[in-house]
Amino acid sequence: MPQPAIILILAFLAITFIQSGYDKVTDWKGNLEWLKGHFSQTPIRNMVPQSLFLILVMEVFSGAFAVIGIIEIFVNGGDQFPILAGVLSGITLLFLLLGQRMAKDYDGARTIVIYFIPVVLLLHWLNAVAL
User: Fold this and answer.
1) How far apart (Å, rounded) are the C-alpha atoms in residues 6 and 120?
2) Calpha distance 19→58 (Å, rounded)
3) I want to staple 10 with a disulfide (CB 3.0 to 4.6 A). Which of 22, 37, 66, 91 is the partner?
């Protein structure tokens, strides 16, 4: 029987990252303009479009792996995609945290930590289930 907490966190990650990716695709120009200003005083000021695209790809895959992970748990009790979702989500959030810290947006960085905590719990619980 799948652990409800694992399913809930995977659903949380799916909603978070799929919605965020959708927002980036549907308002690419708006996001890009805002981020150019946000990162204007950072070392990535000349790489904002590439950085935004990288984050978009990471978010889409994180969200997709979370959805596939939920399905995998119910279909065969596997944990490969839930682990991939957790690891990629964690890496994505670390990239976002680095960006917020470089921009000296400490409130934004603090918000990223709130998202990071469930990812760490997910990976811990998946490791405990696998043992």
Assistant:
1) 11
2) 13
3) 66
Q: What is the pLDDT of residue 97?
A: 97
For the record, the structure tokens of 54 come out as 């990288």
In whole angstroms, give the CA distance from residue 82 to residue 127: 11
Give 127 or 2, the one with higher predicted confidence.
Answer: 127
Residue ranges with strand state E in the chain: none
pTM, two decimals, is 0.92
**7 near 130, Cβ under 8 Å?**
no
| Beta carbons within 10 angstroms of residue 92's beta carbon | 27
- What stretch of H or E contains 104? none
Q: Which of 72, 116, 67, 66 is nearest to 91 (CA)?
A: 116
pLDDT at 57: 98
Torsion of CA 62, 104, 111, 3, to 10 degrees: 40
Please report the pLDDT score of residue 131 as a whole number. 43
State the Cα–Cα distance between residues 9 and 70, nearest whole angstrom: 10
